[in-house]
Amino acid sequence: MRIGSQDVLLPTTMVGNYPNPRWYDGQAFAAFPKGEFVYDAVSREAFDDAVGAIVHDQEAAGLDIISDGRVYGGDSPYGQILYHYTERMSGYKQAGPPIGLPIYSTLFAPSCVGEVRREAPFHLANLRATRKATKKPVKVSYVGIQVLAAATNNQYYKETRELAMAIAKAFNEDFKELAENGCDIIQIDEFVWPYGMGDWEIEVLNTAVEGVDCQFWVHTCWGNYSGTPGYFPNEDDKEFGAWVLDQRSSSAPAPQKAVPIFPQVLDANIDALNYEVGRTGSDDLKPLLDNNWDKPFVAGVIDVKSTVTETADEVADRIRQVLEFVPAENLGLSTDCGLINLPRMISAGKLRALADGAAMVRNELIEKRA
């Protein structure tokens, strides 16, 4: 699989949020300011140190691609997702009721009251801190455009598509700055895609990535709010909690989440698609074959909803299952989703299992070719 300027066999990485160092959360300096760290040297030093600690865990595990870990600081990482972006774009007011968005609906949802434009860098500080801490390829994650549009109380644009297109143009500006500063991979987390795609999502995505000299991956998620899979809420259910947590019995069959993103995703101008396999098994890989997916695929093979750390052998078995659907030359490996709901000690162990399991299968492939 092509990573930057090199071909890497079964490259490994993690998805999304990683647990912040405990000394960082809840402190007065654990804040990510709007724009750059211009005046507050203490916050900048603390932020760089926190990112450095997360980078260290990934390098110690042996991952091939290093992620920024999404250090936002302070509050819930899910709430920070909305604050982080809407505070860096014009047209937003930090007020509005929650929205019935699968797995995120208890969160504060901001309101769009004017024209959306980019006002400050989104992730430049993340990139610089990560790049300073490693010489390996760097991946920076963005919340998806459809996610932000769906989580917005739209009071300005006539249609959600118009709002999403404005966000896409703001992202495009930010993507270009990140690419110019040496980002190898930009990951876009479109975790509402499995709950339905209309006729504009791919157009908006392609607008966002147009003219950007960087690899683009899309991660789509089966849900990881409070460690539970997401589901589409029943509108007849009057209890607010039903909009958030998966209430199906453990014996209920898991829905095929990958099916709704095809065939639309075939027209996306991306370099790789990523979604989970570790928890759900290989059934969701069938749409790749059914729709002749020929681009790289990054398989999540670490179950982030379990506190049990996989063995390297278990991870290797999952990778072998994926290889029945995806050629080794097109396969990357990751966690199912972000590790934010797990203790850092367990998260670090899961990353080691990912790297060790990949190494086992990588050696098998090399031996077969010898």
Can you tell me about this structure?
With 370 residues, the protein is an alpha/beta fold. It has a single domain, classed as TIM Barrel, CATH 3.20.20.210. 32% of the residues lie in helices and 12% in strands. The chain contains 9 helices and 12 strands. Strands 3-6-8-9-10-11-12 form a 7-stranded parallel sheet. A 3-stranded mixed sheet has the order 4-5-7, with no helix packed on it. β1 (2-3) and β2 form a beta hairpin. α1 (41-61) crosses α3 (124-133), α1 crosses α9 (344-369) and α5 (160-180) packs parallel to α6 (201-209). It is globular, with a radius of gyration of 20 Å. The model is unreliable at 238-244 (pLDDT under 50).
Give the helix/strand layout.
Layout: E1 2-3, E2 6-7, H1 41-61, E3 66-67, H2 77-86, E4 92-93, E5 111-112, H3 124-133, E6 138-143, H4 145-150, E7 153-154, H5 160-180, E8 185-189, H6 201-209, E9 215-219, E10 272-276, H7 286-290, E11 297-302, H8 312-322, E12 331-335, H9 344-369
Helix pairs in contact: 1-3, 1-9, 5-6, 8-9
Please describe the structure with a list of short key phrases separated by commas or semicolons.
32% helix, 9 helices, Methionine synthase, 12 strands, alpha/beta, zinc ion binding, 5-methyltetrahydropteroyltriglutamate-homocysteine S-methyltransferase activity, Met_Synth_C/arc, zinc, seven-stranded parallel beta sheet, 370 residues
